[in-house]
Amino acid sequence: MTTFGIIGAGSIGSQVARAVIAQGHEVVIANSRGPETLADLVAELGPKARAATAQDAAEAAEVAVVTVPLHAIERLPVEPLAGKIVLDTNNYYFERDGRVPALDAGETTTSELVQRHLVGAKVVKAFNHIQAAAITEEGQPAGAEGRRALVAASDFPEATAFVTELYDAIGFDTVDAGQLADSWRIERDRPGYGVRLTAEELRAALAEAPRTV
Q: Whole-prediction pTM value?
């Protein structure tokens, strides 16, 4: 059993919580509005979940999931996540986040920005290119024909290995997209983003992705 600290209780965060609880894990979940606003979600998730502040979720986490808007990453707790695997679901939506020139120019990636802020953490890109509902609806047993694949990308092999095991447990194959510097291949508006693909199809989509869009 692993305790997941989930910072961000929106559609992706709540679905990841459901998925990992179904595998027997525990969840400490936070949002920007305070633990009291999560009472209904925690009641639905059951006894393996509790609400907390972002700081408390980070401290309690054995593995963390950060699923907050890009413009909010500077508010993520740093020290409690040092040394821990951190799943980053972030995407760059300039309409929401404002323009980030380094991203527009293809000079960095969203997950590299998260890693830069979370000094000492082991950031891995995960769950960023799947619609929230599909996380709990589209999983299939290993070896199933047409099994959907998801990307993992990290500078830390142990983080990629953890996500690979997690994906498999909840019903997805994994495509290793390399390091965080390569994770632009699965960012918004690329061929693999938001569509259901097998591992072979997803590898092809990553290979076809343009650096800037």
A: 0.97
